[in-house]
Amino acid sequence: YLSVGAPVYFVVKDGQNYTDAAGANQICGGMGCNNNSLIEQIARMSKMPNYSHIAYPASSWLDDYFDWLKPQSSCCRHDNTGEEDVFCNATVVSTSCIACRSAQESANQSRPTPDEFMKFLPWFLNDNPETKCAKGGHAAYGTSVKVIDEGKKSRVGATSFMAYHTLTKTSKDFIGCLRSANEIAEQISQNTTVEVFPYSVFYVFYEQYLTIVHDTIFNLGVSLAAIFVVVFFLLGFDLLSAVIVVVTILLILLDMFGAMYLWNIPLNAVSLVNLVMAVGISVEFCAHITRAFALSQRITRVARAEEALAEIGSSVSVLSGITLTKFVGIVILAFSKSQIFKVFYFRMYLCVVVLGAGHGLVFLPVLLSYI
């Protein structure tokens, strides 16, 4: 009834020794396992779903495997009368099928030896659950355990333990689930031999939001710095002109963020690429007029700004060559049937052209007339 969200897998990387008691105790959740084991920590987090975003404890193939091996369960049986040891599932009725581990072995050592662990594990992973044996691991754990064959011996590679997130409806919920799962996995990794990381089907779409603010500041900062250096050199080492161009572009970006907020355009990887591109396009609206102002032979600042606006602003450089041509090309995007083209391309590109032209043809000449 959709009372839970997407499944989340806590993946234990290759290198964890499950055949050793210490290594297994770091993962399992039964008797003798560590209080801070993977299963125990996820179980505690599931009792605080509003905080952890974990709805149910994780299912453990390791604990079910230990239960499956117990002779009382009649799950693990084999026929060793022939040349090869043959597995007998719970439905096989034969006097030659005996328990994989005797009651005496289970009493002396509750867990299997390393050889027994690796010998019976493939049988467990291929055993279908039956009425007489519900612990068969084929259905639940068939793809959760990677068994690596190394010639005469085999070992357990990467494994996963599945839990469920709480119900997620909004982007905030999805981001909260991802952030919480990363924190839980980091805590678990402190008590396991190898690293543990979370995975869910929606993580690939929301991973960007964990670092999007930092990425935005970094990318836009690097873009503005690069423009400052290039403009400084190409305008004849004119420091003030380079500063004015960068300040104008910075104000265009500020207005872009305001337009994104008013037009419900979220900040994500696509809009960040458009913002970086907007920085580059904005140079065209500012650099030509600034250069014309710097090279003008008029006496007063107002006269120089007027000449720069009259000769460069209305010519092929800004108004006709940049603003109108880009505007015509962008209008076509408004008729697209795709939402991503309408929201992230038409709206943002339109804002770039309108705000760039406004700052280049209105704001910049006024600013130059005062400086």
Relevant terms:
transport; signal; Multidrug efflux transporter AcrB transmembrane fold; steroid metabolism; transmembrane helix; three-stranded antiparallel β-sheet; alpha+beta; five-stranded antiparallel β-sheet; 371 residues; single chain; cholesterol metabolism
Summarize the structure.
This protein has two domains: 6-200, no CATH class; 210-370, Up-down Bundle (Multidrug efflux transporter AcrB transmembrane fold).
Give a description of the structure.
- The protein has 2 domains: 6-200, no CATH class; 210-370, Multidrug efflux transporter AcrB transmembrane fold (Up-down Bundle), CATH 1.20.1640.10.
- Helix content is 55%, strand content 11%.
- The chain contains 15 helices and 8 strands.
- It has helices spanning 21-25, 38-46, 49-52, 61-69, 103-108, 114-126, 138-141, 171-189, 203-206, 212-234, 239-262, 269-295, 301-313, 319-331, 339-370; strands at residues 7-12, 54-56, 77-79, 86-88, 98-99, 145-150, 153-165, 196-199.
- The strands form 2 sheets. Strands 1, 2, 6, 7 and 8 form a 5-stranded antiparallel beta sheet that branches.
- A hairpin with a 2-residue loop joins β6 and β7.
- α10 packs parallel to α12, α11 packs antiparallel against α12 (269-295) and α14 (319-331) packs antiparallel against α15 (339-370).
Write the layout of secondary structure elements.
Layout: E1 7-12, H1 21-25, H2 38-46, H3 49-52, E2 54-56, H4 61-69, E3 77-79, E4 86-88, E5 98-99, H5 103-108, H6 114-126, H7 138-141, E6 145-150, E7 153-165, H8 171-189, E8 196-199, H9 203-206, H10 212-234, H11 239-262, H12 269-295, H13 301-313, H14 319-331, H15 339-370
Antiparallel strand pairs: 1-7, 1-8, 2-7, 3-4, 3-5, 6-7
Helix pairs in contact: 10-11, 10-12, 11-12, 11-15, 12-13, 12-15, 13-15, 14-15
